[in-house]
Amino acid sequence: METNRTLGRSGIDVSPLGFGCWAIGGEWSDRDGQPLGWGKVDDEESVRAIHRALDLGVTFFDTADTYGAGHSERVLGRALGKRRADVVVATKWGNVFDEETRTLTGSDDTPGYARRALTASLRRLGTDHVDLYQLHLSDADPARAAELRDQCEEFVREGLIRAYAWSTDDPARAAVFAQGEHCAAVQHALNVLDDAPGMLALCEERGLASINRSPLAMGLLAGKRQGALEAGDIRSRPPAWLQGFSEGSGADADWVARIDALREILTSGGRTLAQGALAWLWARSPRTVPIPGFRSVDQAEQNAGAIAKGPLTAGQLAEVDRILGR
């Protein structure tokens, strides 16, 4: 059994895994028609899945204002309803979008926009505060980020947020936010195929939580290796930053081969492949909080089911590194 974790220096207690709400935002795209969502979604099934997650002890939900151009926040807010006080809600800001056309239109790294974005997120989520507010511009200028960090401290003083973080894969950038008293975490890519020792070292040094996006490698570690994906799915036309997928052919063969080499370890103890991938993250560091995505009750049950099975052993962790040659 994996026990609850703390969001860094904030003292905020969360379940050992959260649920990432990107996929439940449904279809959206950039101005060139590049899909940015995970395809069509059934909002009622999303609500049922969130309710099931709550019943299974999941208390941390991570979304962003831009997921589905506001739609993910609205669905999450509706699903939580009167149970809002029982959970920790994280969202993100920095992208600019058109809710009506579900289109990403740009970005805005000004402190003034941060306040407008937070006000809009609170309205969509149906709440008076966000527990963890995260900068969504991974490559933002560090000097401007320092201004945004100070703006977040003001939001804390006003009671609009409890803590803040940066969603970035750059430890040097994350360190800029970490200088703030109420910075609690960094959200970054981490999974068994894509380790991040530098970021984990920073989290340990600065007392931050490591919130792990892509913990299942965009579905590959859940066994998703089908060929052509539906047109509205970002994996059908993967942008340069999306590893493990090729346009028109689904999963890359080398990623599939590495997953197959790890299958016996990850499925030990009666785990599914996805549960084993989450178990690796918990074994990797006591600061990790993976946030796998979901679109159905079944996925919610499988992900939450990993909690009871707990982390991999130190020996299994070492064997994974040996197999992957790192």
What CATH architecture do you see? Alpha-Beta Barrel
> What structural category arises from helix and sheet content?
alpha/beta
Question: Order of strands across the biggest sheet?
Answer: 3-5-6-9-10-11-12-15
Number of helices: 11
Strand content: 15-25%
Number of domains: 1
What is the rounded distance between the termini? 28 Å
H and E string: EEEEHEHEEEHEHEHEHEEEHHEHHH
From the alpha-carbon coordinates, what is the Rg to the nearest angstrom?
18 Å
The unreliable regions are none
Per the CATH scheme, the topology name is TIM Barrel
Give a verbal description of the structure:
By secondary structure, the chain is α/β, with parallel strands linked by helices. The chain has one domain: NADP-dependent oxidoreductase domain (TIM Barrel, Alpha-Beta Barrel). It is built from eleven helices and 15 strands. It has helices spanning 43-55, 71-80, 111-125, 142-158, 171-178, 197-206, 253-266, 273-284, 297-304, 306-309, 314-324; strands at 5-6, 13-14, 19-20, 29-30, 60-62, 88-93, 95-98, 103-107, 130-135, 161-167, 183-189, 209-213, 245-246, 250-251, 288-290. The strands form four sheets. The chain has an eight-stranded parallel beta sheet with strand order 3-5-6-9-10-11-12-15. Strands 4-8-7 form a three-stranded mixed beta sheet, with no helix packed on it. Strand 9, helix 4 (142-158) and strand 10 form a beta-alpha-beta unit. The longest helix has 17 residues, at 142-158. The chain is globular and about 50 Å long. The mean pLDDT is 94.
